[in-house]
User: What shape does this take?
Amino acid sequence: MRLFCFPALQTNYFWLLQPDPDSNKAYIFDPGDAAPVRQQLREHGLELAGIVITHHHWDHTDGIDPLLEYKPVPVYGPSSRKIPQVTHTLQDGDTLVLGELKLQVIATPGHTLEHIAYYLPGQPPRLFSADNIFGAGCGRMFEGTPDQFLNSLKRLSELPPETLICCSHEYTVDNIHFALTVEPGNQALRDRKQREEAKRARQLPTIPTTLQLELATNPFLRTAQSEVKASAERHLGRSLNSESEVFAAIRAWKDSFVKN
Assistant: This one.
């Protein structure tokens, strides 16, 4: 297996998966733009075999039609009227077979209602999380509820800690700045800030990250931690009675902090 990660649009990363190095077949995840995908296919001598979608937002789907004009291929994704190009609909618990690889489909509503993630067991395992888990953050809650989003993140948190989080945006440094506002006493988070800022200074990506690192530094996966809860309560000026309320508070706080 080979996996290529490349930047596109303003902050996106696209993931191009070649299941078998002895075959030139490849699958693109969430192509928000067709041009960089075609460029990567040419550079690596690959042939597009399929398109895999997580949710309906334009920066994950706008490249579908131009790619289908370039080469008609299956489109795998959630059932959504906003993604009419999907030919093979997937839901929670399904298995997506790409060549010799079998990816587990996990429903992750919250960012959008139909959002799904793809888990690929292996050494190491990989999670194509799209806009659910980011480096030190999570996506905006456009359609789901706090309970839905928190439940989605908790499901993903139960994956093996060595899982590589293959998310869709370069937001890590901005997310860390907010996370330190929520949890200033987190030494692992302060250490991460130095490492990730050094990467970006060299124009290197901060992803993939690992689930283990996110569990230690991502406030949206740490809503049960006392410092996170206390910060959220101070910000709101009132007590919070559940993790869902803590999640809702820090997500709304983050919305007013930076754009992602």
